[in-house]
């Protein structure tokens, strides 16, 4: 690739298939804690690409009141458990990475806890 010195990858949804898992967990929590019902498509349309704080703001707008206390922490705990049990690489990414000759790295806005899970997965 002429003109490039480095490739920077996002992690979630690019290297590992975490978005589907995260959305399943979050949808379950929103139903149990807030009475909100979302299918996978709605979850992607509404929450993917937003920070945790932004997601809490979206939920507050939907509820018309602050989300239940502990909602964000429950999500973080539950998602970390789910990722530890079922994280997988995106189909074809390992082959693609093996063919890249340029230096590469990962940039992620994911929490440090989630990053540790990904590091464990790769090792």
Describe the structure.
There is one protein chain. With 123 residues, the chain is mainly α. It has two domains: 1-17 and 88-123, no CATH class; 19-86, DNA polymerase, domain 1 (Orthogonal Bundle). Helix content is 56%, strand content 5%. The chain has six helices and two strands. The chain has helices at 19-34, 40-47, 52-63, 71-86, 93-98, 112-122, and strands at residues 7-9, 104-106. α1 (19-34) crosses α2 (40-47), α1 (19-34) runs antiparallel to α4 (71-86) and α4 (71-86) runs parallel beside α6.
Summary of the model, kept short:
The protein is mainly alpha-helical and 123 residues long.
Q: Radius of gyration, Cα only, in angstroms?
A: 16 Å
Low-pLDDT windows of residues:
none
Shape summary: elongated
Query: What is the number of helical segments per DSSP (H or I, 4+ residues)?
Result: 6
Question: What is CATH's topology name of the largest domain?
Answer: DNA polymerase, domain 1
- CATH H-tier superfamily of the largest domain: Putative phosphatase, domain 2
Listing every helix as H and every strand as E from the N terminus to the C terminus, the arrangement reads: EHHHHHEH
What is the domain total for the residues?
2
Mean pLDDT, rounded to whole units?
A: 86
The CATH class designation of the largest domain is: Mainly Alpha
Strand line-up across the major sheet: 1-2
State which percent range the strand residues make up: under 5%
CATH architecture of the largest domain: Orthogonal Bundle
- How many runs of DSSP E, i.e. beta strands? 2
- Biggest pleated sheet: 2 strands, parallel
Q: Would you tell me the structural class of the helices and strands? A: mainly alpha
Give the terminus-to-terminus CA distance: 28 Å
Helix content: 55-70%
